[in-house]
């Protein structure tokens, strides 16, 4: 079961990090602000998944408040980006 949790957490971190990199690369090319805010959303989601990995696999303590503290800015940044986009 530990191997499955490790693989699942690694997949979640890798997917978020890949989305973050792709969004920032595309933003550097096109300068669309929504890509910028989406990239920052995935920065926080990647950090959230790293905290989940630490919570489930490495540490023996509950990191749920820290994970929520990383998820809230991710959603706030994305909502701000969606609301401020005017095209």
* Helix-residue proportion: over 70%
Could you tell me how far the N terminus lies from the C terminus, measured between alpha carbons in angstroms?
48 Å
Number of helices: 3
What value does the Rg take, in angstroms? 15 Å
Number of domains: 1
Shape field: elongated
Order of helices and strands: HHH
Q: What is the averaged pLDDT score?
A: 92
Model regions low in confidence, pLDDT < 50 over at least 5 residues: none
Q: How much beta, percentage-wise?
A: under 5%
The overall strand count is 0
Q: Sheet with the most strands?
A: none
Structural class: mainly alpha
Describe what you observe in this structure.
This protein has 87 residues and is mostly helical. The protein has one domain. Helix content is 87%, strand content 0%. The chain is built from 3 helices and no strands. The chain has helices at 2-30, 33-58, 64-84. Helix 1 (2-30) runs antiparallel to helix 2 and helix 2 (33-58) packs antiparallel against helix 3 (64-84). It is elongated and about 45 Å long. The termini are far apart.
What are the defining features of this structure?
single chain, elongated, mainly alpha, 87 residues, 0% strand, 3 helices
SSE layout and pairing:
Elements: H1 2-30, H2 33-58, H3 64-84
Briefly summarize what is shown:
By secondary structure, the chain is mainly alpha-helical. The chain has helices at 2-30, 33-58, 64-84. The chain has one domain.
